[in-house]
Amino acid sequence: MTTITRRGLYERVASLFGRRIAYDSTTAVNERLGQQTAAAYSLQAWHQQQATVRNTSALAVQPGLLDARGRILTEALFLEGHLAGARANGLRPELIEALERTVDHSHELAVLLATAARTTTTTEPEITGR
Description:
Layout: H1 6-16, H2 26-42, H3 44-54, H4 58-88, H5 93-118
């Protein structure tokens, strides 16, 4: 049986209303980051096994690349909103700089995923206007 802490219960209730709680200490943030990392890596072996079974051709890889690119682009735009809000409200320069780097890298990742998706096609694009 899983034991839920008071904070864990509060987080679950808040999530039902589309809200998340903020952590007021670096220790708490680091704990949450560790939980996220552990949860993500717990699925790594399953993802690798599924990819080995399913990704038998370049075209089989393409849908996952397109899905990932869509999610990353959506998150990049979400982060741009946070950046705009941080700037508009004069939040700490360190936060603004970190958000700027994060937004830049998110957009770069979206571009890299689009490039990878294009490499999965079997035909060259038609060149028009010669």
